[in-house]
UniProtKB/TrEMBL annotation:
Domain of life: Eukaryota
Documented EC number(s): 3.2.1.39
InterPro entries in the record: GH, Glyco_hydro_17, Glyco_hydro_17_plant, X8
Naturally occurring in which organism (per UniProt): Trema orientale (Charcoal tree)
Name listed for the protein in its UniProt record: glucan endo-1,3-beta-D-glucosidase
PROSITE patterns noted in UniProt: GLYCOSYL_HYDROL_F17
SMART domains: X8
Membrane topology (UniProt): Lipid-anchor; GPI-anchor
Keywords carried by this UniProt record: Disulfide bond, Glycoprotein, Glycosidase, GPI-anchor, Hydrolase, Lipoprotein, Membrane, Plant defense, Signal, Transmembrane, Transmembrane helix
Location(s) in or outside the cell: Cell membrane
UniProt keyword Disulfide bond present: yes
GO biological process terms held by the UniProt record: carbohydrate metabolic process; defense response
Cellular component GO terms held in the UniProt record: plasma membrane; side of membrane
Length: 506
């Protein structure tokens, strides 16, 4: 930046019409934001298990095999912190609830920072300290009274230690909201906490530019009637008559209820981070909705939703830093469902794939992903119908796929995949073509629970089932002019656009 004339026009643009400059800034800013949005997904790395891989192996796996670029841990385990050194992965550490009262005083906070942050920082990219976890839910008056003073003391200690890039916050359960916080526009903090606890806390967040952290779990709020609403599946939605907005998923409704509560005390400008959310992939026999398909539906749709930049009805065009719970299934948790929140098993094989694996190498996946150990290492996957699916359901799949931009000519008369001329064969080709065109993420092979993924190529004779490698996808999308083309080219262009924008602001 030219300090003598900070408002000077960048030389490259000085002779261009003002509208060109505006368009350039808009496009570059929009593309930069969209790339940032693609990396908004983090994971909670819990360790309540006796069979987990060493932290060094976990860090290497996340860095090289996944697109996850941030983790949240529930302590300050030095082995984990050292493991993430020089990986570029951001780490949120946690102060134990019992340690909060002592840290309300600056000397203790300084000692804690000196012991738990400074030895690892900045080699380990510690980006945030979570002071306790869901402290308001404990109803412990001492913990609640010391929470904000501890946050302030740790913030001061970080400044004194020249670690100002580390934020300080605390995660809250949705129990902070009053019981009558539905519809979302009526969301408010619990009476007695709104002005005494949350207004001062949100003022601290505003002053320190740190986020308000929440743990929204549609899993804890759904009923039999609202299951699709909780899972991001098609549903009639919930209408908020006060705003005229219709909510098609419970996650957005919970987020907007928190936003409304913040707005009522005057702090709707404070950023929000989703510290925990998830869905278990297994439960007890009396918990039929705790299964792999629902976990895949919730977490897979969540990843797409929060990464899209679409935001929520009351917070449009916002991308929320979001941490899925959790990284691993943890075998020492007390209940079946608590043991099965993980995206991965301890051997690093995915329980299911929500789209965070690089090159979609979902080795070791379990139901609903079909396994084929001899070919699984290749990472190639196809989508085919389940064996027990009716012809009527398969015909619906064909009708749906062929109503999109997917090319169904190969299964039409004269096409290489027309024979054998039956519904199952045609549906198999159509479902895979859709899966390859729109992903391939596992949730794009769901088809109302009628699809399953295979690692065995279903091609036969002259009928070749499409498989989209990265180069093929780029090549095809450019030729077709479809939606993949827009974002792929944007990603190629964005680095240059952002670089030019920054350089000409200097």
């Amino acid at each position: 930046m030219d300090l003598k004339n900070p408002f000077r026009t960048p030389p490259l643009l000085s002779h261009q019409p003002i509208f060109i400059i505006i368009i350039f800034f808009f496009l570059a800013g929009h593309l930069c934001a969209s790339v940032a949005a693609a990396y908004s997904i983090g994971v909670n790395y819990g360790t309540v298990a006796d069979n987990l891989p060493p932290p060094s192996q976990v860090a290497e796996f996340l860095k090289t095999q996944t697109t996850i670029d941030r983790v949240k841990i529930f302590d300050t385990n030095p082995e984990i912190l050292w493991a993430f050194a020089n990986t570029g992965i951001a780490v949120t550490v946690t102060v134990g609830n019992g340690d909060v009262p002592a840290l309300a005083k600056l000397p203790a906070a300084q000692s804690w920072v000196a012991n738990n942050i400074i030895p690892f920082y900045p080699q380990t990219r510690i980006n945030r300290i979570a002071v306790g976890n869901e402290i308001l839910a404990t109803s412990d008056k001492s913990l609640i009274a010391h929470l904000l003073p501890a946050m302030k003391a740790l913030h001061s200690a970080l400044k004194l230690a020249n670690a100002t890039a580390v934020q300080v916050s605390t995660p809250h359960s949705l129990g902070i909201l009053a019981p009558d916080s539905e519809p979302p526009s009526s969301g408010r903090f619990r009476r007695g906490y709104d002005r005494v606890v949350f207004a001062p806390m949100l003022e601290y967040h505003r002053q320190t530019k740190s986020p308000f952290m929440i743990n929204p779990y549609p899993f804890f709020g759904f009923s039999a009637k609202t299951l699709n609403y909780a899972l991001f599946k098609p549903n009639g939605g919930v209408f908020d008559s006060a705003t005229g907005l219709n909510y098609t998923n419970m996650f957005d409704a919970q987020m907007d209820a928190v936003f409304s509560a913040m707005k009522k005390v005057g702090y709707d400008d404070v950023d929000i981070v989703v510290a925990e959310t998830g869905w278990p992939s297994a439960g007890d026999p009396n918990q039929p909705d705790e299964n792999v398909e629902n976990a895949l539906s919730y977490n897979g749709n969540l990843v797409r939703h929060v990464s899209s930049g679409k935001g929520t009805p009351l917070m449009p065009n916002r991308t929320f830093e979001t941490y899925i719970f959790s990284l691993f299934n943890e075998n020492l948790k007390p209940t079946t469902s608590e043991k099965n929140y993980g995206l991965f098993r301890p051997d690093l094989a995915p329980v299911y794939d929500v789209g965070v694996l690089r090159n979609q190498q979902a080795s070791g996946s379990t139901s609903p992903v079909a396994q084929a150990p001899s070919t699984i290492g290749s990472g190639k996957k196809w989508c085919v119908p389940k064996t027990d699916t009716s012809d009527a359901a398969l015909q619906e799949n064909i009708d749906y796929v062929c109503s999109t931009k997917v090319d169904c000519k190969p299964i039409q008369a004269g096409g290489p995949c027309f024979e054998p001329n039956n519904v199952r064969s045609h549906a198999s080709y159509a479902m895979n073509a859709y899966y390859q065109d729109f992903g391939p993420q596992d949730y794009n092979c769901d088809f109302n629970h009628t699809g399953i993924i295979t690692y065995t190529d279903p091609s036969y004779e002259a009928c070749t089932y499409p498989y989209q490698g990265l180069n093929l996808k780029l090549e095809k999308s450019v030729a077709r002019g479809g939606p993949v083309k827009i974002w792929t080219l944007a990603e190629i262009f964005v680095g240059l656009a952002c670089y030019v924008l920054i350089m000409h602001l200097m």
